[in-house]
Amino acid sequence: MTTMSGSDGASAGGSGGRGWFTPASDAASAERPAPGAPDAVPSQQTAGTAAPEPEPEHEPEPEHAHEPEAAPEPVAGAPAAAAERTAPAGPANPGPAGSGPAGPAADQLGDSELIGASMAELERSADSATAYFYALLFVQYPHLREMFPAAMDGQRDRLFRALLTAVRLFDDGKLLGEYLAGLGRGHRKYGTVPAHYPAVGECLMAAIARYAPDTWGPRTEAAWVRAYTAISQTMIDAAAEDERRAPAWWDAEIVSHELRTSEIAVITVRPDQPYPFRAGQYTSLETPWWPRVWRHYSFASAPRPDGLLTFHVKSVPAGWVSTALVQRARPGDVLRLGPPAGSMLVDHEADSGLLCLGGGTGIAPIKALIEDVVSRGRARPVEVFYGARTDHDLYDLETMLRLQDSHRWLSVRPVVAAGAASAAEALAGELPDAVRRYGPWPAYDGYLSGPPGMIRTGVETLRGLGIPTHRIRHDSLDELVVQGA
Ligand SMILES: Cc1cc2nc3c(=O)[nH]c(=O)nc-3n(C[C@H](O)[C@H](O)[C@H](O)COP(=O)(O)OP(=O)(O)OC[C@H]3O[C@@H](n4cnc5c(N)ncnc54)[C@H](O)[C@@H]3O)c2cc1C
Ligand code: HEM
């Protein structure tokens, strides 16, 4: 991995505490500053003075709650000292602390191997490590608490997942760079500034030292510090660059809200400033009802001359944001949008066909892709398999069939999982089976959007049909990487 493992010669690890990974604070200054004084990192509380309390487990509260979960130890001395400690207290997988990957061979390992081993160990107790990380962060830096949602259950492993993603992308510097740049741009909407990174880094290292003790040691620590610094720097640089041309977020007023079924709404918004994006991408969205709770939604159209944006939202049982959007939102309500993200884009240089699998509201970005092909005015075969549980759930079939009638190169096949196909003349069964039935697809690229399970089985099916991984796209890079694709 070039981006993360490159050594800048700084002796990052073992420097004894504050300010090891203080990244440069603007895009012009890409070089990592020497270890030393922290860059406007807020001063810590006296260690151990604020014992965190358990976090609420159920519904989020509209107002901030300042209750981190576990009771972390003071960060002072950790993680720098962790490698030298004899036994860090309370890890889920206790082992000889400070030994690092054992044996002389460990000396030969590069940063990516050291970090990979550390992550593999950390994954076994990822939940505890995550809880510890956030508890420590909010105790040591209480003012950061209000940047995060009131209740964080279910969402809070994303930092670790991002690191896992970064580690898995070690060998693809370009993809890693793109991923981290997107993450950095996306962090502007949270109010993240460069000075926050050292605070997060310290708590992260403390969590890793504690929950991956078998692989922790001075060299692993130094590798982590280098990697974290490089990751942070990429995110900070991308945010600084983005600041020059885009707002941190967009306010977007709902101009129409159409219930297509009792669970699915088609929502159109008008952003307060031009919103540049590409067909196939998605955005992050915050509602006024759940502050700081962001969810992703795909654009259901290619960019339009009127600048309006449309989303298809399905309310999931007890889902905070989706239920609010479907049941509560009305024209005139103002949502907040983050920057566009996602790489499920049409390659307009290629001649290949598009084999599209859209499950449920996953049909939304597929429709955007079709409009994108239409706007280029170059006919290429597009085969759409539109899956849903029942006929009733094929809420956008009419639109899709209209598109099919207008373009001879487009074919739309509805597929319903439950019961026999009926009025919609849908195929019965699961999406992958239908795709197999009509294959093989040697001259097609795969595009998939829908629930994660559908994407997983869909990707396996397309690979099984001989479409190589690099020609299969879907809307979540994390998901792709976690699958080991
Ligand atoms: C890249 C991307 C694009 C997306 N695009 C869209 C889109 O265009 N339209 C859309 O409706 N959604 C889309 N989603 C899903 C969306 O981001 C939310 O996850 C979804 O709306 C649920 O959020 P919530 O806050 O309502 O539920 P949460 O409060 O997050 O979840 C509540 C409960 O529901 C469960 N749950 C979460 N999602 C589902 C689900 N799909 N089915 C059943 N149970 C679930 C959770 O495990 C939890 O137990 C997309 C997701 C990603 C990653
Ligand atoms: C290397 C450093 C970091 C990485 C890899 C990282 C990664 C992530 C990821 C993957 C998410 C999930 C949502 C998204 O994609 O935007 C997230 C959310 C978030 N991050 Fe970071 N982050 C880092 C540093 C920071 C810093 C320094 C702050 C500032 C305090 C911060 C604050 C937040 C907040 C407030 C959220 C939203 C939380 C939520 O929705 O639950 N992050 N981060």
Automatic annotation (TrEMBL):
InterPro entries: Cbr1-like_FAD-bd_dom (IPR008333), FAD-bd_FR_type (IPR017927), Flavoprot_Pyr_Nucl_cyt_Rdtase (IPR001709), FNR_nucleotide-bd (IPR039261), Globin (IPR000971), Globin-like_sf (IPR009050), Globin/Proto (IPR012292), MRET (IPR050415). It catalyses: 2 nitric oxide + NADPH + 2 O2 = 2 nitrate + NADP(+) + H(+); 2 nitric oxide + NADH + 2 O2 = 2 nitrate + NAD(+) + H(+). Keywords: 2Fe-2S, Iron, Iron-sulfur, Metal-binding, NAD, NADP. Pfam families: FAD_binding_6 (PF00970), Globin (PF00042), NAD_binding_1 (PF00175). Residues 247-347 form the FAD-binding FR-type domain. Residues 55-69 have a biased composition (Basic and acidic residues). Residues 102-240 form the Globin domain. GO terms for molecular function: 2 iron, 2 sulfur cluster binding; heme binding; nitric oxide dioxygenase NAD(P)H activity; oxygen binding. Residues 1-10, 72-96 have a biased composition (Low complexity). CDD domains: Mb-like_oxidoreductase, O2ase_reductase_like. Residues 1-109 are annotated as: Disordered. Its cofactor is FAD; heme b. SUPFAM superfamilies: Ferredoxin reductase-like, C-terminal NADP-linked domain (SSF52343), Globin-like (SSF46458), Riboflavin synthase domain-like (SSF63380). In the C-terminal section; belongs to the flavoprotein pyridine nucleotide cytochrome reductase family. This is nitric oxide dioxygenase.
